[in-house]
Amino acid sequence: MKKFLIILLTLFILALAAGAIYLSYRYLDEDMYKDRFKEIVKEYTGRDLKIKGDFDIDLGWSPTVTFEDVTLSNAPWSKQKQMLRAKKVSLKLKLHSLMERDITTEKVLIEDAQILLQANKKNQKNWVPQPKKSDADKALKNLPNIELRNVTIDYQDVATNKKSQWQFKKLDIDPTSNKNLIKINLEGKYQTLPIQASIQIDRATSHKDIMNLKGKIGNTQVIASGSLEKPLQLNISLSGTDPTLFRHWLGFKLPPKSKFTLDTTVTTKNHQYKLSPLKMVVNKSELSGTLLIGMHRKTPGYSGKLNLKAKDAGQFFKDFNINDYFKGGSIRLNTQFNVRGDTTKELLQTANGQANLAILNTSYSGKGSSDMAKLLAKGQANDSLPINCAISHFNISNGVATLPALVFDAPGATVFGHGTINLATTQVDLKLEPKAKGPKLVSLAVPVQVTGSLENPSVSAKLPTKNIFAAIIGIASGAGVVGLIGAELATSIGNHPAANPCIKALQQVPVDSAQ
Hints:
alpha+beta; 11 helices; elongated
């Protein structure tokens, strides 16, 4: 009976308190409450809150405060005055916290708003408050339910002027009654890409934030899981039929409608993201290896080791908008590279590294009507030129690829060559010397120089006829096939019947022929 009376007395006191708050709100100056909330915001964020529209308090066991036409000031170092503009902001408060003068928010609702997030040269972030009284850890532990409706968030790096935009039709962040679990559901756009996602962050496992994400970005299905603690470690799996998503990060065109998958583990260290192992499959083309992305400078840097295997060379060139001259065949490429930039052109201009390339058992329909074309086609004027193989080693320095050795084999001749290709401008300067496979074709086996661009090359036959490929033979015979193109590539080519002419061409040239 005594406990029951205590409960009744408690409820009576709470009712009186609620009534007192309600009456004071109804009959006292509304501006006094506006000023009080402005003081609270200033105390906990260090920012100025302005309320131009209506201000309302809905009293109850969970009092709700609603502001209309609201602005929140930006960080002092920003040139933009406001960090937030909103037509409506509602805060649902815990009643007991009002009694204790320690206001706790249960739920935040922001509608029809624009939010500006900025980072400056000193890596100061305007979304990190600089309050007079604040406890960040306590705030995170007492994270309220957050709902955004029709909210646009613009991000700007003041130092580099890089910009991006999120548009949320709906974003719900729910810590739930279990303080160790945060659920996030969102629907909106990143730049122009539609996004849907469901995320769970578990903060109970070994004092680490463990994330599980399932979502959709454009037509891409996304699954991610792992630790959000430093160092970050996430297992990521992407799949879909439209890899447009990657254009925002890679900066170059990808096939618009292609079945693809990407699987990798992402780890971080010193502002560097490591994707290893990395495996991406687009149609019948497979890319694998390791990729490092450095974000510690204004311009991002990329380095790594990648291997490409394309089961259909013609489809690969078509998929990646290179050309549609090749039909069938296969491609092998292994490369080690280091590049920096925000655009495709910048990446190509700064490229350093080396690569080995082999195109096997394909045909080419853009051969033209030159003597070289007739020679390679064994004197025939066919619309399609069979290519047994083409292999080359590249040394890349500041965007210029030097080919110390190129071997190209077709039905009518084997061609040896060397030269340079400017990756950014596609300008070429190649010297080629063919070796005819029959006496009737010898007259067509004239050394040539190829200049101009890859898209529109120009062939000149005014070169001296003596040993323009001596350096190539020296490299090939001295280093051997494996040394020239790498063990993995040599093995894969050697096991391919159509590649044997190239292997034999390198292996059978006597050393003294390069003298």
